[in-house]
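stuck on this:

***
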Amino acid sequence: MINSVLLAVTQASAPAPLRYGIPCLLIVGCIARLAMWWSKRHRDLTSEQAQSLLDSTTYVAILLPTGFSAWALALFPHGNGFEQAHVVFYMAITSICCVFCLSYLRAAATLSGLCVLVPFFGYFILSGNGVLIVLALNLLLITLALLVVVAGNSRDFAALVASRSETARRQDEAQNLHEANERLARLDGLTGLPNRHSFHRELQTRLEAAAAAGKRLSVARLDLDSFKSVNDIFGHAAGDRVLQEVASRARAFGGFIARLDNDQFGLIGDEARSETYLAAWGEMLCEAIRRPFVFAEVSLHVTASAGLAMSQPDDRAETLFDRADYVTSVAKREARGSAVVFSDRHEKEISKVRAMEHALHTADLDAEIYVLFQPQFDISLDRVTGYEVLARWRSPVLGEVSPADFIPMAERTGIVPKITQAVVRKALAVIDQLPPPMRLSVNLSAHDIGSMTAIEGIVALIGQSGTPCRIDFEITETAVMGDMQQANAALLALLALGSRIALDDFGTGHSSLTHVQKLPLDRIKIDRSFVAVVTSDATSRAIIKTTIDLCRNLGVSCVFEGIETEEQLEALLGLGGSVMQGYLFGRPMSQEMMLERQSSPQPGWQASRNRMFGAGA
């Protein structure tokens, strides 16, 4: 526009309409275009809007240069030499400036340059004037060189735009991935509920708010009962649908719900009114889970045990959840499928458990763990063939602690392998005092079986004894269920020492026949629950008889636990049993009593029975 105004001022010889009228119309078009761009300077345009504006720029790059070029060439014949030179300068310099200004829009730059170059070149080539012809050729070369430069700049600019677009796309992908990871860090992928981390963070936040407001919160832990059997029987797809439905039913109770683990859920309720109210709320929750889960192809029945607790003013999230967690285990043990609210009784129990846990962690196991020996009597040989070694704990702080209390705790805290090794050391210390082929048997836990480090420790202890191994090991079905391959490797390492393996508590676990088939067993011990009712329950007698036949066919011995009465013994003998263990044959005894019994002449079973029950027994 500036160049056009200056050109019009210098063309004194041209007619006024040509000199001023035409450039005014063209300048009005330029001003309208400039105003349009100015109005859009702060707008965020969509890709479609930007493309439309760039297309319009390309069209304008044809119209305006063509109009200004035609106007300039129309002025040329009217001027003197200086005025004509200004026309030539105007067309050349303005064209070059416009091409540079449009260099990032290659199509517009090219069309703008051509709309000036073509009429300029054609007009002056045909003029016959040598100077004008040279100027035309010169402008042609300059314009072509400019267009080559513009093409290179355009490619570089396009590459820069593409690079920035790719960078922006990757940043978007990274942001989306970060947000997805954040969601995964907070949420459970299956149910869409918050996860354990989110639950504890929310619980702490709500606890602080409740304490400030002088209120008490309620917390519940919901644990599905025997959920593994759902996966085993109906498949993991059905199990996943059950978990999703449990989440949906729990949401209906309001508050904050999270999935804590595979089949465990946590709930944070509103202000807790009373223990009675909380107990009723927990029962409603358990009742909701008891309703059948009906899918298109199957109907499932699942129960859940719940532990509930109310907050105290100075509670932290961990303390409150520990209370709910503790009474959940109480519910599963004492009121399976129901809800239990944390009370003063449970507070005392927790204190006792914590004291026991601390004492167990700090115990000198070799000094505090002692062993008792319970005889195993073979009726067919009419003598004791071995003893089961039973671990006992006498704490200097707590006194005598029942194995029913400290063994589960040792398993939960991972200390049980150390206890097992202490028991093995004591068994090795006494085995040389027993005549061959007398053997001792030691119980192994799931932690022992599941850890090659623990097994290697046992192997090292037996290897250090320097005598043939007469230590056998008893395992339960639940101890090998986690990893059958690891269990086999552990048992084979023990068998290589000369040990024998017994499957304890047979009949009470899952898939017992599968374990009998896959494990390298030497004997099977029938659980005491079958022996207790052998005289009154025909089904138990049938199971015992079938198991005896199974052992005979497999070439393994069969041991019966928990025999306490003469009637039980007679029933088992009638079914074909021979190896017995129980109070009828001897209670667990100290090492001194066991060795004294072994050193004295041992009458056969019939003589012992006559001595205990009378000659007419």
Remarks:
- Residues 241 and 295 are 9 Å apart (CA to CA).
- The chain has a mean pLDDT of 88.
